[in-house]
């Protein structure tokens, strides 16, 4: 069991739970927010757990968490609330706009409910995780502990874009769900049916792939057009983001962040941990911890099937936060906060690793090639830069873009074998020699690549993988960069995600380079046009030139050795 899970020497008897009640509060601007209330049927008072949802309170996020009755039976008052404009709560839903003020109001109200002892903890993943972080900015006195999961830190860079490219599949899928809920609330049956159907099969082959007809026709029901067209970072995006809201500190609160290696928002989660660790102004009984496990954006744990020992125990979100809330809301000495500030799950060795901080990307492996890296075996990764310059040429064809497979890219996230993708002629592949001994990579990674194209705009998709002795190619880290007209940097920096993996002896490390990763990001038409203005017919083939060696050394930067 990971050190952040509870240590329970004697399991207390479960409590009876009263039937749920529907309760309401008023925000500071007068809107009614509705919630379901679950209380132990016993003498209290009890700490309160608050879950604020944009997906409808009646679901109680049970796809990722135990039902609220489970927590109530263990001595908590549980409040599951529809955020503004969702479920039966009043108002209009505009993502993240009101969660700072509404969240603080909800904490104060929840602390005053019957059976409450006046202390509140918050939980939830994704949007509900961001709602916790935004509520922290108001420093509500009753809020003592939060457990945001798979949340991120900045709406522009963690939810809307990555590396300058729009997060097409992720943003479109969520927007369709939001629009369908808005149509349902308005009893717009035709819109609801069309939007719900689109959630089940994203309309990516529309005339305008990044702005399909169903979202153009029902744009009034969601935020998608704003996210697609509003430039950033900064500006109006700052008003939505915990990164900006929490720049003044967080007060006296204990924070356990849960991240996932296959969650699109992991980079923001890591940045949040660094910022919150420095911003904590609480006393000795406050703590900031980070746990990153093999979870995807839905909180599902995915394991790569490898030889060796059985998988280490991966605790549920419920076990993790039950220990955290027991420690910081009830004062139980269960050791939930013990260990280092960061704990990472090694996705290949399948064990947990404790770190005081994430090691930087400091060790270099240089790209080398005979000019045929798009043919299997032509490219290599070496410790030293090759003296001789090389040039690899790959052609991106928009009619057959390189698909997103594995890693954090949506859809298809997880430890999926990408060997067939790397065999395509539009993917350049660079391998190390087979490892003579196991190699542990735990920390940050980056890529500096000398690349140019015959188009004003182009994309670079980079995937770092383990090539296992059985031939499977499992993604470990990934990065994407969109180069706009006039925006070329030499070399081009591509931010790769952090990783934690121990490659076994006989395996190899692989870097794959392509001109697309669809539908995780829109196909770049090569013209510099915005995605929302690009028709399917507008996209043109793009030739990428990858340089290395000599005066233009392209290199991969890996975590410094422990």
TrEMBL record:
Keywords: Hydrolase. The keyword Hydrolase applies. InterPro entries: AB_hydrolase_fold, CocE/Ser_esterase, Galactose-bd-like_sf, Xaa-Pro-like_dom, Xaa-Pro_dipept_C, Xaa-Pro_dipeptidyl-ppase/CocE. SUPFAM superfamilies: alpha/beta-Hydrolases, Galactose-binding domain-like. Signal peptide: none annotated. NCBIfam families: CocE_NonD. This is CocE/NonD family hydrolase. It comes from Azospirillum isscasi. The lineage of its organism: Bacteria, Pseudomonadati, Pseudomonadota, Alphaproteobacteria, Rhodospirillales.
